[in-house]
Amino acid sequence: MSGKPKLHYFNGRGRMEQIRWLLAAAGVEFEESFLEKKDDLTKLQKDGSLLFQQVPMVEIDGMKMVQTRAIANYIATKYNLYGKDLKERALIDMYVEGIFDLNELFMNYEIQPADKKEQHFANMMDKATNRYFPAFEKVLKDHGQDFLVGNQLSRADVQLLDIILMAEEFKPGILAKFPLLQSFKTRICNIPTIKKFLQPGSQRKPPTPEEDIPKVMEIFF
Ligand code: IBG
């Protein structure tokens, strides 16, 4: 065994992307095993690798971890991205749960049927612009610091950057009304491990191409 965490998922963002981001931000190299067809999932289910028969699954430190949040919590704790005390952790949890909620909307957009896409898109853009981004702009404004919590990099910064970049793919000017999020984005993008993850050829995933959606549906739904 190489000792590197091994990520089991399809070759796309979905629920795994935030885990990839956390590992990358922590400077941890990881391997990936991609599910290409339903059989690949069935095989993992049959060999007992998936506690709840679902992926993401990450082999790490002798464990086969499932449940996205549990995996992310473990990585964030292990690599010191989870605050320095209970109260910082509480704030980080609040911010990250908001980010997960927005991420869920973004993730589900790709798999919406054609007749629901427009309405889903309007709703997720409305939520990003009028609910989540104003909240994070306010957090930065109220404490005037460079990072969301405790004036040092945490998983909340990493996970927020991921969602900001995704939102900009959907709507390039989405940060226009959020000057502090714009400077936050620049700052976090310049952290060396993150800068590296943003380079072409990294393990960061692009949006799932339209023509691959049926394959994803076949594997999971
Ligand atoms: N609570 C679990 C977690 O957070 O890890 C949910 C995991 C989950 O839904 N896994 C899906 C799965 O394994 C893949 S992500 N399904 C097989 C099964 O038998 O349940 C699927 C997904 C995508 C995009 I891709 C949007 C929403 C879900």
TrEMBL record:
Classification via Gene3D superfamilies: 1.20.1050.10, Glutaredoxin
Family matches, as PROSITE patterns: GST_CTER, GST_NTER
Record-level GO BP terms: glutathione metabolic process; xenobiotic metabolic process
Domain GST N-terminal: 3-83
SUPFAM superfamilies noted in UniProt: GST C-terminal domain-like, Thioredoxin-like
Transmembrane annotation, as ranges: none
Listed EC numbers: 2.5.1.18
Pfam families: GST_C_3, GST_N
Keywords noted in UniProt: Transferase
A GO MF label: glutathione transferase activity
GST C-terminal domain segment(s): 85-208
Keyword Heme: no
Domain of life: Eukaryota
PANTHER family associated with the record: GLUTATHIONE S-TRANSFERASE, GLUTATHIONE S-TRANSFERASE A1
Family to which this protein belongs: Belongs to the GST superfamily. Alpha family.
Protein name from the UniProt record: glutathione transferase
Species this protein is from: Pipra filicauda (Wire-tailed manakin)
Gene it is expressed from: LOC113984987
